[in-house]
Amino acid sequence: MTKGAMLYEGKAKQVFETDNPNEVIVRFKDDATAFNAQKRGSVDLKGEMNNAITTLIFEYLNTKGIATHFIKKLDEREQLVKKVNIIPLEMVVRNYSAGSMAQRLGVEEGIKSPVTIFDLCYKRDDLGDPLINDHHAVFLGAATYDELDEMYELSSDINDILIDLFDQMNIILIDFKIELGKDSNGKIILADEISPDTCRLWDKDTMKKLDKDRFRRDLGEVTEAYVEIYERLKKVLHK
Ligand code: 5GP
Hints:
Elements: E1 3-9, E2 13-18, E3 23-28, E4 31-34, E5 39-42, H1 46-63, E6 70-73, E7 78-82, E8 85-96, H2 99-105, E9 112-122, E10 131-132, H3 134-140, H4 145-168, E11 171-182, E12 188-191, E13 199-203, H5 213-216, H6 222-236
Antiparallel strand pairs: 1-2, 2-3, 3-7, 4-5, 6-7, 8-9, 8-11, 9-10, 11-12, 11-13
Helix pairs in contact: 1-6
The chain binds guanosine-5'-monophosphate (5GP).
Guanosine-5'-monophosphate is lined by residues 90, 92, 98-101, 129, 175-177, 197-200, 212.
């Protein structure tokens, strides 16, 4: 398998073509951005950690029957994945109040929700990924109502599996964002990454934040948090 031209460069990852039209290589960078790229920086080891963490989580989800784009880890920073057409929606799943929802609703962070909250955002950097509803998503042609139903069900299943996995690591899964894509058969599968960049992860005993909020909010010990998540994940998965 050979690495070809770069197809896409995002804030934290690059995507390269391969000699197989159905497969691409994802490369994880150390670059970090926040608040719609108004804050920029770099976190040592972040690319390697997010590649390793996403690998372990996607492999685990595969064993639990969740279809993902993941094929294999290639090296420290790269993984081979199925090429998908990314659905231009971010699915945010929340178990506790935090971040933009806490701000929007004027509530404290860390309140456990009696129900799972799903926020749909339109993937448009120039608009700041606005919060939208199902009808807007259908209007935009991003998904049909049936596809949205499927996306909510898949996100809920992923949430159940991840809550349990992080619980074993003594971590509360506060919220997370996923991206879904359609494979060559039109099937909706999990794509992108699941890492401390895309989740809020709080230590159960100390409530210490072990995720990208350490970068966003200048809390220090950013690399340490990513490494800590990787170490705990390896331990519970016996890797
Ligand atoms: P919030 O809407 O509270 O800012 O984010 C909710 C959750 O989704 C957090 O775990 C956050 O990390 C994740 N998330 C939402 N949008 C993005 C995004 O554009 N990039 C990344 N890396 N994470 C996001």
